[in-house]
Structure formats: structure tokens, C-alpha cells
Amino acid sequence: MNHALLPNTQNANLPVKYEAAKLAIMECFRTDECQDWADKMQALASYARQSQDYEMEKTALRIRSRAIKRGGEILKETEKATGAHLKRDAIVPLSRKAAAEDAGLSVRQAKTMIRVSNVPNEIFEQQVESENPPTITSLAQQGTTPSKKPPMFEQMGMTKESFQAGMYFRGDIEDFGKAIKKYDIQDIVDGSTPDQRHRIYNLIRQIDAFTDQLISKL
Questions:
Q1: Could you tell me the CA-to-CA distances from 90 to 55, 82, 84 in Å, in that order?
Q2: CB-side exposure of 11: number of CA atoms within 13 Å?
Q3: Of the chain's two ends, which shows fewer C-beta atoms within 10 Å, N or C?
């Protein structure tokens, strides 16, 4: 695991690191790596809450949820203990319980990971990326028994592609809306070379054409 990607709780710039964190979590192959992420993010969320930095708190909660879900996925790849695991002098696969113990997880922590991993990906993504990410307890409750309901996008009468496009685009355009408030227009112009200004101009033309079409359909 690349611990360099784990931000210091006293000096974190999580929005910048978020995409890297998601990739790093998906590349975890051991449950203890996921728990390491979860513990770090729990501490960071607590620090952010005390500092009243609610954006950092929400981002830390999102990363923690992803780490716990990934940990559950890894645990579910390990078979539950059977009689075969009790045979003496036999080379047998590590049981799920033993894998959890090796990762330093309590029985409760292991169950929570597995339950969170039971939440369907589409439903998980929609909730975790919302303005009010759910608690781990809430996610675990949803995954106590695997959902027999159809995926969220089907319940809403959407295709999977359109559901994901809407979800990710809304996040992207919200980020863009926040970004444009950071800059003075004249500073942007003065801080760009003629070639860079031309590039900005062409990109804005593309954005204008796209948003004109989008507005006509909203």
C-alpha cells in the first residue's frame, strides 16, 4: 500500500487527493490495507468536524466508506470456515475468520465490512457521492441482507449509462461552479500567453455549444 497517499490529518487537501485515493483503495489486495485507510479517514473526519471544515469531513467519510466496502469485497473472496479447515496436517486455504483476525479486525468490524460490500455499487455510489454521505452504520444496515430489489437506475426508469452520466456530470459541473468563483477574470487573461488564451477560448466555445444543447433539453 502506498502510505504516501494517506494525507496527514493536520495538513490535508483531500479534494485534490480524492481521485488518487479511490484508485489506491481499489488496488488494495489485503484487508488490513483497507482498514488502515478507514482508520486514517475516521480520524481525519473527526478533525475536520472539530475544525468545522465540512467539505473535508465529507470527503474523508467518502474515502472511509470506499475503504470499508473494498475490505468487505476482499473478505468475501475468502471462503468461510468449513470442516476442511479443521483437518490436521492438511494444507487448506485461509478461512474468512482467520483472514479477518490476521488483519487485526474484530468480529464486528469484519461483519460491517462484508455488509457494506453487499450494498449494490450503483446505490453505494449515489449515496456516497451525495451532499450528505451516509454513515457506515447506515450502509451496513442496508447490506445486512443482499438487496433483492433491481438496481437503482432500473427503479428510476434509467439505463445504467444515463444514470452514471447524470451522477458524474452533476458532480463535475458543481466542481466547475465552485472553481469559477476562485478566480478574477482579468487575472486569468493577464496570466495566460496568447496561445493559452486561444486554447481557453476554444474550450469555452465547446462548453458553450454543449451547455446550449443541454439547456434546451432540461
A1: 52, 13, 8
A2: 1
A3: C
What one-letter code names the amino acid at 93?
A: P
Shared domain for 85 and 191, answered yes or no, is no
Close Cβ partners of 64 (under 8 Å, ≥ 6 residues apart):
37, 38, 41, 42, 45, 136
> How far is residue 112 CA from its own chain's centroid?
17
163 vs 64: CA distance, rounded Å: 24
Q: Cell numbers of 135, please?
A: 454513515
CA angle 158, 159, 162 (to 5 degrees): 85
Number of domains into which the chain is organized: 2
Q: Quickly list DSSP for 57-93.
A: HHHHHHHHHHHHHHHHHHHHTSPPP-GGGG-TT---P
Please name the residues in contact with 156: beta carbons below 8 A apart, sequence gap of 6 or more. Answer: 163
CA dist 144 and 154 (Å) reads 22
The answer to whether position 138 is within a domain reads yes
C-alpha cell at 86: 479443521
- Give the C-alpha separation, 186 to 173, whole Å: 22
pLDDT bracket for residue 85 (50, 70, 90): very low
* pLDDT tens per residue across span 16-58: 578 888 888 988 888 888 988 998 898 888 888 888 888 888 9
Task: Decide: helix, strand or coil at residue 47.
Answer: helix
